């Protein structure tokens, strides 16, 4: 899977990559929206997966230090990372998560219906990305696989949410290990999984209050989960590209349930309210933003004559 939206003006690249990171990090604090999906939309998904895989293998290589080859192997893996792209993206993600915990999360809390409508429209339109990448490779088998993935995501996103006030740090680490896998898998929302585990609001409070033990436990769990999952995902994307794209399409489609604008306090869908028309317009606006990005991507991908 080749990354897209290739930069034709190198001087603007760091700023563009920083902006991509800001987008990815911002949606990660919104339950139901997948950072992996946004990474796919803005064209850095494969680069980030490859980078994470090399970093994990560099850490593993350090275990070969007694035989004197660990450092050279680790440096070789780190050198293979496209740091010129990955570094500004990561900076943007960290900034967005910190700022999003203070700005975006309260916005979602104060205007949940409107924000879900906007993000729902964006994710619905972003289904074009994996569909477009597969193109004519779609078969009835891949369509059936996408259907099963959509059904699974639909059921998972229908789980009622709760809140754990004072969780043990081991639970925090385990939840982070699972949630970070959703971060790198388009269609699955790490923030939503935290909501299901009852740790979403607790995690936001920990970030805002700089709760070091909580944040450290979360970071350790995330690193462990990413280490176990990212290499597997990298191999699957390389060897079973069509199958993985079909799965991504289904997961993204099924996860739209979490972004149905009208929900009760437990995250369960309710009938549309009298504000159906304004919400539909907001959803169309969100979709239009993604379609604009897709159109720009197609224009940049078009070979110059």
From TrEMBL:
Keywords: Membrane, Transmembrane, Transmembrane helix. The keyword RNA-binding does not apply. The keyword Membrane applies. Pfam families: VCA0040-like. It comes from the Bacteria. The chain crosses the membrane at residues 21-45, 85-105, 117-134, 140-159, 171-200, 212-236, 243-260, 280-300. InterPro entries: VCA0040-like (IPR007163). This is DUF368 domain-containing protein. The lineage of its organism: Bacteria, Bacillati, Actinomycetota, Actinomycetes, Micrococcales.
